[in-house]
Amino acid sequence: GQQVMQIPQYQHVQEGEDFTTYCNSSTTLSNIQWYKQRPGGHPVFLIQLVKSGEVKKQKRLTFQFGEAKKNSSLHITATQTTDVGTYFCAGLGYSGGGADGLTFGKGTHLIIQP
Amino acid sequence: DARVTQTPRHKVTEMGQEVTMRCQPILGHNTVFWYRQTMMQGLELLAYFRNRAPLDDSGMPKDRFSAEMPDATLATLKIQPSEPRDSAVYFCASGSGRINEKLFFGSGTQLSVL
Q1: Beta bridge partners of residue A98, listed in sequence order
Q2: Tens-place pLDDT, residues A44-69
Q3: Which of A71, B38, B39, B93 could join B33 via S-S bond, C-beta 3.0 to 4.6 A?
């Protein structure tokens, strides 16, 4: 079955440093979604990428979808303490258009030292 | 603000007891998902429903877990009998059911089985 690998598992950064998490799928994806979970909270949808090579920005966050639609990345510029949490990617395969095909990565835990 | 409501937020029980978790999806959403989150396994899909019909529960231990949707406003996840290895956070999520839908997660039920 489809597998989504996410690295690194943990990332410690100093406040103000950049952060990147990478997501790789074993199969070509229809789209990829990113979620953020604050400590003690629940996953919250951030963004969805659909097109090959797509790049989207949300303030200091930049999301990319690879040309082959098998990998994706999330880059945060100049991290702030509010960025603390776990970032999940979730890939949707071609078996169906709905979220039933979503496979979540295990997430990257971002820890920020002031 | 529309949101997915889960109850209870916390549950501590003894091994062998029945546990029932409830979820009220966002009004108008027709897909409902149950996920289990642990440090080791991350987010695991247990079951999902579309228009109240169970479509996939292959991620669920069938001998002790059951998931139902008695009506469009209520989804339940039951564990009987519960075991210590069931300790985890259980999330319910709902979606619009459209292609490339995004998921809205509830706040989760933190389950501890002693």
Answers
A1: none
A2: 999 999 999 999 999 999 999 999 99
A3: B93
Q: 10 Å Cβ neighbour count for B114?
A: 10
- Count the residues in chain B: 114
Contact at CB, A98 and B105, closer than 8 angstroms: no
Mutate to test the interface with A, among B21, B26, B43 (most CBs of A within 10 A): B43
Report d(CA B81, CA B7) in Å as an integer. 19
Q: What is the mean pLDDT of each run of 10 residues along chain B (114 residues)?
A: 92 98 95 93 91 87 93 96 97 87 95 98
Longest Cα pair distance anywhere in chain A, in angstroms?
A: 44
Q: Are strands A108-113 and A10-14 parallel, antiparallel or unpaired?
A: parallel
